[in-house]
Amino acid sequence: MSDEILIDGASELFDRKGLHLSVFPSDYRQIRYYTLQLVQRSRPKTDERLLLEQQVSEIIKNAVKHGNGCDPSKTVKVWHLFTAESARLIVEDEGPGFADIEKWNIFNRKRIEYAERGDFVGLMSYVSWKTKKSDEHDGGNAMFAALEYWNDGVVYTERRNCVAVKKTFEANFMEAGGDE
Amino acid sequence: MDITSTTREGIVFLATKGDLDMYAAPEFKERYSALASRDRHAHFILDLAETHYVDSSGIGAIFQVFSDVRDRGARFCLCNARGMVKELLRLSRMSSILPIETDLAGAENRIRGQA
Amino acid sequence: MKPQAIHERALKAATKLEKDIDGSLTVSGQRFASAAAAAVRALFPDDDVAAVERITSERPSVGRYEGDGPSPLATDKTERLQELLEAASLRHERKNDGAIVDARYRSWLLIPIATRKETRIAIVVARKKDRFGEDDLVAANSFQAFLSQSLKNARSRNKKVAKADEDARHRTLLAAQWTIARRRADFQGFHQAVDLAASTGSDVCLAHRSNDGRFLMCVADVTANDPERLSGIVYLDAWFSILARTTLDANGMLQRLNADLIARGTECYVSMALARYLPAQSTVEIAGCGNACAAVLCHDTMETKIVEFGPAAGIAADTAIESRRIAVKPGDIVCAFTDGLPSTRKKSGDLYGLSDIGEIIRKNCYLSAEALAERILKTVADSGERDVNADDRAIQVLKIE
Q1: Distance from CA of residue C343 to its chain's centroid?
Q2: Shortest Cα distance, chain C CAs vs residue A180, angstroms
């Protein structure tokens, strides 16, 4: 697991072979619907699947809202593969790209330092990453959780309008029999 | 999402039912603002027992409410965060900042105990 | 202790463990840990016993279970309890420093239960008055092997039951889907065809002919997880059956569907393309929502118009339903199809797309409704890449006669 967002278009996480492809218009109202279309056949409905659904929806939302400006004429392309063992996602929008990745990484490092020091008063100033493009309804905390959740990496292309993520699930120990 | 509220002895008990997501977060904040404007000194308890899904907008809304309550000199406590809600609070490290109790009684004790 | 006595106690302990965990189909880690502790207590009835369980490997999380009797553990701290889970083999502490096991115990024994080369559960047996003897260690060693095998068996059974449970649920969904798909509405110039090989259990085709000659057809794609998808399909079947007998127009029907889905409050969305043919007025009303589509071929101009729709039903109460009324003549063709067709991935990597579907309709418009529906399905399936983007495909063709 990396503790920062990487920029590497050559990352193996961008290998689209074997991944399904869905293309959505950038309709903000339908983000959860699009997300459910992607994850509905992945894992049984449990808290784990709900968390997967939430994490996927955040990436789709970023593409729809911040990438494509909620313009339904612009599309979001999603390559995806969800299995019992892992979840892979590549999301590409038509926008200008996530310009401030480096600044975000610095911000996040500071946030983690405060948290690990137990300085929760200091941490209060780092709960939310907001830019000029953010509005009052953006929580500003999605990427913090994403970096913790997608334990095999969060990587952007050099153009920064395409992100690839991967999560390897921990097997439910008591249901993983037969592999001794 | 449905939001219910009751007030008892200076504490507003807010309970959400349904998903506190990007679509419900604006309504949640509006409801809080309306309640806070009625009594600037009221403490707030948010009960998430009937909310099984929350996203970054929901977490952001909860944090905004917490900040506002604190700025007014009152107290805030969250309770009954379970499943993916609890996990997302942990992943975003909000569980280190927000006052959280396991259940409603614990939340009420915490607020009254500090008063 | 005589070997006979050890043997009898071990047998009693093993029987107790099997009785405790055999009653239900699946066994959780916590249940197994508690049952293992109780079984060890039967093996060492004069000693105090506790169990610790490694709950996850991703981040430190350890559960502890005492059950009946006082707990010998001196600490609640995860870091200390994790030490117990580092052991791969039996551990006998002849002197107790009071850090992990309470100082009132003179000595203690650790029985790790390992599987996949990792200790997931560890049983602590603590003795107040003296140390464990050789007989105790022999008994603990043999019982440890039995516990490890029992854990392995429990995990294997859990896996089979979980798979069987999931398979059964999905088979029920597919059976319901097939029951609906096999129904035929007898109407001149109409045919529906489905390709359910992907087994996603998401698409349904419905059709109804009224006594007054009106004809209603719709294809729908339900987006929800398995249990809610089954309930969604059953609901749609009933919804269609009732509304087909009303005088609501196509737009009104979809509005009703949207309102009902919002009111149900479950995470279930529907994409639908619905066509209502009024022969007396030579008109077709087309309405829809989500990513289902309709196509209308005008026989005079040989042009195919693709009709796309707005958000799926079940998203927002104020969703505007896209609909239109089209005048039709004999030879015109109306198709309704689910997104499984345009989202088929070609071998080139591109999606099939709506204009390609329109072109197939145009090129094959001379065929009967049945032949056209089958030709469209076959053409898309043959040129699609297998194993990716697999989805149900459903199409209805109405050739105006």
Answers
A1: 22
A2: 5
> What's the CATH superfamily of B2-114?
STAS domain (3.30.750.24)
For tokens 């003179």, name the residue: C106
Three-state DSSP at B56 gives helix
Q: Is A86 on the interface with C (CB under 8 A)?
A: no
Domain boundaries along the sequence of chain B: 2-114
> Where is pLDDT greater, at B46 or C56?
B46
**What b-and-e string marks burial along C175-206, b requiring 16 or more CB atoms within 10 Å of the CB?**
ebbeebbeeebebebbbbbbbbebebbbbbbb
CATH code for the domain in which residue C199 is found = 3.60.40.10
Contacts of residue C343 in chain A, CB cutoff 8 Å?
A: 21-23
Is A137 part of the contact surface with chain B (CB cutoff 8 Å)?
yes
- Helix and strand numbers, DSSP H then E, in chain B: 4, 5
Chain C contact for A36, CB < 8 A? yes
All residues of chain C having their beta carbon less than 8 Å from the beta carbon of residue A33 are 223, 269, 290, 311-312, 314-315
Best residue of C159, C165, C262, C389 to probe chain A, by most A CBs closer than 10 Å: C159
- Residue A129: what residue type? W
Cβ-in-10-Å burial (0-12, 13-18, 19+) of A134 comes to middle
C343 shares a domain with C316? yes
Considering only the beta carbons, identify the residue of A32, A111, A139 that sits closest to B59. A139
Query: What is the pTM assigned to this prediction?
Result: 0.85
Q: Looking at the domain assignment, is residue C376 inside a domain?
A: yes
Query: Which of C116, C227, C389 comes nearest A179 by C-beta?
Result: C116
- Structural domains in chain A plus CATH codes: 7-95+143-171 (3.30.565.10)
Q: Which chain A residues are closer than 8 Å to C157 by Cβ?
A: 177
Query: What is the widest separation between alpha-carbon atoms in chain A?
Result: 54
- Structure-token pair, residue C46: 């004069």
- CA B82, CA B103: separation in Å to the nearest integer? 10
ipTM of model: 0.91
How far apart are the C-alpha atoms of C286 and C304, rounded to whole Å? 15
Asked whether residue C323 falls in the same domain as residue C372, the answer is: yes
* Amino acid at residue number A146: A
- Structure letter (DSSP) for residue A12: G
Judge: C223–A175 Cβ closer than 8 Å, yes or no.
no
Amino acid at C370: E
Q: In angstroms, what separates the C-alpha of A112 from chain B's closest C-alpha? A: 9
Each residue's pLDDT tens digit, A38-88: 988 776 657 688 899 999 999 999 999 999 999 999 999 999 999 888 999
C388 contacts A175? CB cut-off 8 A: no
Reduced to 3 states, what is the DSSP secondary structure of residue C196? coil
Range of the domain at C284: 183-399
Q: Which residues contact B66 (CB under 8 A, 6 or more apart)?
A: B76, B78, B97, B98, B99
Q: How many structural domains does chain C have?
A: 2
Give the best residue of B92, B95, B96, B100 to mutate against chain A (max A CB count within 10 A). B92
pLDDT tens-digit series, residues C138-182: 899 989 999 999 998 998 888 888 888 888 888 999 999 999 988
Sign of CA dihedral A104, A110, A112, A115: negative
